[in-house]
Amino acid sequence: MGKASKDKRDIYYRKAKEEGWRARSAFKLLQIDEEFNIFDGVKRVVDLCAAPGSWSQVLSRKLYVPAKLSPESRDGDLPLIVAIDLQPMAPIEGVIQVQGDITNARTAEVVIRHFDGCKADLVVCDGAPDVTGLHDMDEFVQSQLILAALTIVTHVLRVGGNFIAKIFRGKDTSLLYCQLKIFFEQVTFAKPKSSRNSSIEAFVVCEKYSPPEGFDEKDLYHLLEKVGTPSGTSDDSGSEMNYCYYTKDCRSGWLEGANKVYIPFLACGDLSGYDSDRSYPLPSMQGGSHSYQSLDPVQPPIAPPYKKALEMKKAASTSTQ
Ligand code: SAM
Known about the structure:
The radius of gyration is 22 Å and the shape is globular. The two termini are 28 Å apart. It is built from ten helices and eight strands. The chain has a single domain, classed as Vaccinia Virus protein VP39 (Rossmann fold). Helix 4 (54-69) links the parallel strand 1 (44-48) and strand 2. The protein has helices at 3-9, 11-19, 25-36, 54-69, 105-114, 135-156, 173-181, 220-226, 283-286, 307-319; strands at 44-48, 80-85, 95-99, 120-125, 157-168, 184-192, 201-209, 265-268. By secondary structure, it is α/β, with parallel strands linked by helices. 34% of the residues are buried. An eight-stranded mixed β-sheet has the order 3-2-1-4-5-7-6-8, with helices on both faces. The chain is 34% helix and 17% strand. Bound molecules: S-adenosylmethionine. S-adenosyl-L-methionine binds at residues 53, 55, 85, 101, 126. InterPro entries: RNA_methyltr_E_TRM7, RNA_methyltr_RlmE, RNA_MeTrfase_FtsJ_dom, rRNA-MeTfrase_E, SAM-dependent_MTases_sf.
């Protein structure tokens, strides 16, 4: 498929290049913000799974750049944005980059150290594994990324702060909703207009972090496991934890039958705006001319995972010549 045909088929891909975003995902975060005002009063933020960096660009343009240009700005007062990914990322103004695996405790420690004593107002995570096409498997790996993100959240997010993460909708969505409701006052699943209907992706918007009283970060996984456990099942771990793990909406722990959980689900972004599932004519085609010039991507990945595969393929084809 040529660049121009992709520009025609995917309006957000084209707009991203026109507006200088590294990826079309930027629009997803912007549309979530239109609905939830996630940047209001935010000074410190963590961007998990950030490469190639379009969400970090949004954070930089919305938070860092305006603060820096403000006549009252002082260096120590500028927003702190920390971005993490397995892949390296080209620099972005005002964004501190950490290369690492968010499921690894050491990466989490590095992030936490950047916040040295202070807490973040917002944590975002657009993490996605390399999709296999096996839906259950993809959903499982995705859920592990969310759990890793939640671990970081419990260490760095201030009470009252917000957390946004990509999810793959599937049979465990209700369970995830109930698990997140333990920690947040409001949990909503959102589908931005720029996210294709054909994609199982959605975003969970968790507002107002409020962990259970006496919550100890070490007990996170144990606490999450208890959600969905039948009411009355004893805790056989010998732990002395005494959390109320039934949230208001998930009272009995069972998520099916009479106790089925209904999850708030919201479409967001200007609903009369561009539809990511439609093809749009290219600007020059509307006028009848064929002079349309497709733009190059704003920032190609610096070390994409497929680079080695391409090199191996090239080496194999030269050796057979
Ligand atoms: N939000 C990014 C943007 O706007 O440019 C796009 C993120 S992309 C959809 C998903 C990213 O998740 C990839 O860059 C991938 O390297 C990262 N990722 C997947 N698993 C990860 C892990 N365990 N730790 C850190 N990053 C991970």
